[in-house]
Design goal:
By secondary structure, this protein is mainly alpha-helical. Helix content is 78%, strand content 0%. It has 25 helices and no strands. It has helices spanning 2-6, 10-29, 31-48, 50-69, 88-99, 101-107, 110-117, 130-144, 146-164, 177-186, 188-224, 230-251, 253-278, 281-303, 314-339, 346-378, 383-390, 395-400, 406-435, 452-471, 474-481, 483-504, 507-510, 516-529, 533-545. Helix 5 (88-99) packs across helix 13 (253-278), helix 11 (188-224) packs antiparallel against helix 19 and helix 11 crosses helix 22. The longest helix has 37 residues, at 188-224. The chain is globular and about 80 Å long. The termini are far apart.
């Protein structure tokens, strides 16, 4: 026991661990009351604070574009001599699968079809109409395009520079260092950030665990006609997912995490190519291109639209739910992403974490969403009827039933669902264990030295949270639970963005990878652009002191 305790960063671990245990206990004892609390919190936040999500995420999007395409983008993470430790393909594969792979599998078929058969109330479109069909994917791209990846990328940027160049610790509080100094980073504010984000991450991954269990169960019911009670099936699936996630997390980034991510990307490619070839190719192309144009045209107005008069509830049920979901995962995802970015420039970081995944999202949702609408409209495959009978999670399997080699594609679908959750959970368990480990050192290839106990603890907590959310109200409770957790994270990410801007604009102070001559050159450049006498005097004094 003493050995285990000595391996734990008690200050970072204890408070969120106790909070997680307390919440899990309440959820186990009174799941119905837990579900009611989620509903009340969701309704209040959607009605009163939705505007904060919209404005805050718009700010993160602008921040990422500035960081990537200004002169700041030339800064190399880890210094000029730093070299990448993995290929571009592996970097992109791990980046995508650790962030959203579970989500695109769950919503890939169903969301576009849902917008077609039950269009947003504020559009005025008739359900199942050509107008609804042509507009359906523009809202999907809005939810899965620039905004969510700006959240992930913005989160990573807030940690990347201070971790690799300022040499701060591998923790969420490190992003505060340029603004609050060492006392702020390691004191009350820093501890609060670490505690809050660790707890929220358990809730968010519990949500993903619930979605995965729901989709796998729905698939078993639909494909095999299984009649096993869900109260039995759900815990079996959750235990299996938890064991696999913990096992792979223990292997590290350069072993199972990398290979599982690469394998999953290959399976993604096989499935999407098959759907493109046999799911109505010409309609897929035309509808996807049309939807891209609509998305780009609506992106700014839809970003700030909260249906103040129409109040159909669609914005709360879909848009705010998505924004909050991405936010709850973002801090730990961002912290994990920076582990992959050593030796890359900030511009490369933005391109790989923001633009490459968006390209995949357009291909995936454009193919499956368009094809599902095509099958529903013209091919006599009533996917919507299956959704109404079995629930939203069955949408992928109902769609695959209409493709050639449907049995093979269905098995591939099951495998992708499993691997998609595992790639995210293993990376987040790995990161949470690293944050709460006493030894924050690394091996020669960049692997952290966190103990197995911490990976088991966080993996088990995520699994129990997922089960409790399912018991508290099924899919609705799973979805609504994240909305009440996203706002605190949004505030933290915005503060970190300001902190990043301060750090990169004062590299001579914060970038410890610079040589003295490089520091002098930065100060000389500032002197050339400075017209304020007092600032000039301060810069000259700093130049003499180096």
């Amino acid at each position: 026991m003493r050995k285990i305790i000595s391996e734990i960063d008690i200050k970072t671990f204890l408070v969120p661990a106790l909070l997680v245990v307390a919440v899990l206990t309440v959820g186990v004892v009174n799941p119905e009351g837990f579900g009611n609390l989620i509903k009340v919190a969701f309704a209040w936040i959607s009605s009163n604070l939705g505007w904060m999500y919209d404005i805050g995420i718009a700010c993160l999007l602008v921040f990422c574009l500035w960081a990537g395409f200004s002169k700041v983008g030339n800064i190399r993470l880890g210094g000029k001599a730093a070299k990448p430790n993995m290929s571009m393909f592996s970097w992109a594969a791990i980046t995508f699968t650790s962030g959203m792979a579970m989500g695109v599998v769950f919503y890939g078929v169903g969301e576009g079809l849902f917008n077609f058969m039950a269009p947003p109330g504020f559009t005025g479109f008739e359900a199942g109409s050509p107008e609804a069909a042509e507009a359906a994917l523009s809202y999907v791209f809005f939810h899965w395009g620039f905004h969510p990846y700006a959240i992930y990328t913005g989160s990573g940027l807030g940690f990347a520079f201070v971790f690799w160049n300022t040499k701060r610790s591998f923790s969420l509080s490190s992003g505060l260092y340029p603004l609050l100094g060492e006392k702020g980073e390691q004191g009350g504010w820093g501890n609060t950030v670490n505690w809050l984000c660790l707890y929220i991450m358990v809730g968010s991954l519990g949500t993903n665990m619930g979605l995965c269990a729901l989709q796998l169960t729905a698939g078993l019911d639909y494909v095999f006609g299984s009649n096993y009670p869900h109260d039995l099936v759900h815990p079996v699936i959750i235990i299996f997912l938890a064991v696999c996630g913990i096992t792979f997390a223990c292997s590290g980034i350069h072993k199972a995490i990398k290979y599982v991510s690469n394998t999953n990307m290959v399976f993604f490619a096989i499935l999407v190519v098959w759907a493109f070839l046999f799911g109505g190719t010409q309609f897929i192309i035309n509808n996807t291109v049309t939807s891209i144009g609509q998305y780009l045209g609506m992106m700014v107005p839809q970003t700030f639209y909260l249906e103040p008069a129409k109040q159909s509830g669609w914005i709360g049920d879909w848009t705010l739910y998505y924004w909050a979901w991405w936010l709850t995962v973002a801090p730990l995802t961002g912290l994990f992403l920076i582990k992959l970015a050593r030796g890359r420039t900030i511009r490369q970081f933005v391109l790989v974490n923001m633009f490459i995944p968006i390209g995949f999202v357009v291909i995936w949702f454009g193919t499956f969403g368009s094809s599902a609408i095509y099958q529903q409209l013209y091919n006599g495959l009533d996917i919507w009827a299956a959704i109404e009978q079995y629930g939203f999670p069955v949408s992928l399997f109902a769609y695959l039933k209409g493709l050639p080699l449907s049995g093979v594609m269905t098995m591939l679908g099951f495998l992708i669902i499993f691997l998609s959750f595992i790639t995210q959970s293993e990376s987040m368990i790995y990161t949470m264990a690293g944050m709460t480990s006493a030894d924050k050192g690394e091996t020669a290839i960049g692997e952290q030295k966190s103990p197995t106990f911490l990976k088991v603890f966080w993996g088990a907590a995520i699994a129990i949270m997922g089960y409790i959310l399912l018991k508290s109200g099924g899919l609705k409770a799973v979805q609504q639970s994240v909305v009440m957790l996203g706002l605190p994270v949004l505030v933290i990410l915005l503060v970190n963005a300001v902190s990043f801007i301060k750090a990169v604009n004062n590299r001579e102070t914060y970038d410890l990878t610079l040589t003295d001559e490089e520091r002098k050159n930065i100060i000389r450049e500032k002197l050339q652009d400075c017209a304020d006498d007092q600032k000039q005097a301060a810069l000259e004094e700093r130049l003499r002191s180096i």
